[in-house]
Design a protein that fits this description.
CATH architecture of the largest domain: 3-Layer(aba) Sandwich
Number of strands: 12
Helix content: 40-55%
CATH topology of the largest domain: Rossmann fold
CATH class of the largest domain: Alpha Beta
Largest sheet: 5 strands, parallel
Strand order of the largest sheet: 2-1-3-4-5
Radius of gyration: 18 Å
Shape: globular
Amino acid sequence: MKKIIAIVEDDVNQRQHYAEALRNCGYEVAEYADRTAALKAFQQTLPDLAILDIMLGNEVGGGFEICRFLKDKDAQFPIIFLTSRGDELDKIYGLQLGAWDYQTKPVSLNFLITRIQSLFQIKNNTSANSQSTNFQHIGDISIDDASMTMKWKNIPVNLTPTEFDILRAILNTPSGVSIEDLVSATRQGVVEDNTINTHILHIRKKFKQVDSEFSCIKTRYGFGYSWTC
């Protein structure tokens, strides 16, 4: 069965451009020009993945509102923000809402399609191994690479795939891992240093939600990060 991808984008030319490329790759695509139309459709049935612009017409945060709705429906629902808004605060907010990826326009179609394929593969692997008990323990953290899940003191920490990859890279290098190596760990091509810092900020926040005393991710100024517990 074809995967269904929803594109919520108010620029008709951009929306059709992305939709045509995805259909050529074998996906079924549903197009929406505004938040109201998208939410009306999503109330009936959810697609398999959503690509959201943030500013939709006169709604400066319309995409954020859609993201909240989808995450309320399914906490693991894969969302990609594709937007011209590259401000760090927007990126932080989008990731805090639970988006799996945040890309700033322009993005090549080949790159976008590769990211979508990667996210579907990750989601499939996570679903297939959701009952896995093959956890590796490093102190108080438990890691299951098959399902890309982590627990802190036996409490699940809900990381996105990108966050999991970044934290796994830190855990794999006790002496500390550089920003450049963390960029490679994201498997996202060109990634700014500030984007890595944003992911780290979000990872720390998620751990603090389950343990207010959490402080294991240390900043190595001018280099990167290390795990010290």
